[in-house]
Specification:
By secondary structure, the protein is mainly alpha-helical. It has 12 helices and 5 strands. A hairpin with a 4-residue loop joins strand 4 and strand 5. The structure holds zinc ion.
Length: about 290
């Protein structure tokens, strides 16, 4: 008796197609998940006013969660670029210039906890910011600077990513995309598919490998110019950084500063506009180069 029940589905499986009801059911589940994810994006995220960028933005995390996430991802980030640089003098200068920018500017009025790290990697020209205030620069980029102001330009730009909450904004969007991708998966795959258990590791990996969009880069440039001016640095040093990066951009993987910018000249133009907005009567003498 039991046997015959068991053989029945086997025969159905061997047939040309499964029942239409099950496919409809899966499509429905997919649709529900898709709607839920769109709903979660619009209702589960907060529309928050950012007093520094003076814009509303959609984020799915609190400032505190950003800080925690950044702290958790920081060791993995450092590990990917050779760990912390053993040069304690250089390490101290990176921290000093970074803290000077924070304390002199609106970034210092936020709850973000800024920490600046020099990474040992002397091959990869890069700088990046994790959400919450963990900021990194590689030795390969650091070694190319001729002045302190150029270092301030890069760090100011990265501080801009943090206070602009660019990662939190991107993650709110990514969550929407994940939901939609998951919904598509349900339609073709088994609905009983077990979910990944290492969710936090996946989130950390996502943050570590995150690339910012063009608009975020330009906003960070503008904020960087503002923070430099507040801290007494000549913002034209950021233009010099663009030149350094353009020269070193031969053949290899483009640095973070160029990853989403195929046209560095246009970017320099925008930086010049930001400098003009900051100093309508021209950049004064005596600023730190
Ligand atoms: Zn950037």
């Amino acid at each position: 008796m039991r046997r015959s029940i068991l053989t029945k589905p086997r025969r159905a499986y061997g047939g040309s197609r499964s029942s239409g009801g099950s496919l409809k059911g899966r499509l429905l589940i997919g649709l529900v998940i898709a709607l839920f994810s769109v709903g979660a994006y619009f209702f589960g995220t907060q529309d928050v006013y950012n007093p520094i960028t003076e814009e509303n933005q959609r984020v799915a995390m609190t400032v505190d969660q950003e800080i925690q996430l950044g702290l958790q991802a920081a060791p993995q980030m450092a590990q990917q670029f050779g760990g912390l640089d053993p040069d304690s003098r250089a390490q101290a200068l990176v921290d000093e210039v970074g803290q000077r920018l924070v304390q002199a500017s609106a970034a210092g009025e936020t709850d973000y906890q800024f920490e600046f790290h020099l990474l040992a990697d002397d091959k990869t020209i890069n700088a990046f910011a994790l959400p919450g205030g963990q900021i990194f620069i590689t030795a390969a980029l650091y070694e190319r600077f001729q002045t302190e102001g150029q270092l301030a330009g890069v760090l100011g730009h990265e501080i801009g990513h943090v206070v602009g909450r660019h990662s939190a904004e991107q993650m709110a969007k990514a969550r929407l995309m994940e939901g939609l991708a998951g919904a598509a998966g349900v339609v073709v795959a088994d609905p009983d598919n077990p979910q990944s258990s290492a969710q936090m590791a996946a989130v950390v990996a996502q943050v570590v490998n995150m690339k910012h969009g063009r608009d975020d880069e330009l906003e960070s440039d503008r904020l960087g110019v503002r923070f430099m001016a507040d801290a007494g640095y000549d913002p034209r040093s950021l233009l010099a950084v663009m030149e350094i990066l353009a020269e070193s951009n031969g053949g290899q993987t483009p640095p973070e500063f160029f990853s989403t910018h195929p046209n560095p000249e246009r970017r320099s133009e925008r930086i010049q506009e930001a400098i003009k907005a900051e100093f309508p009567n021209g950049v004064p003498d005596g600023l730190i180069q």
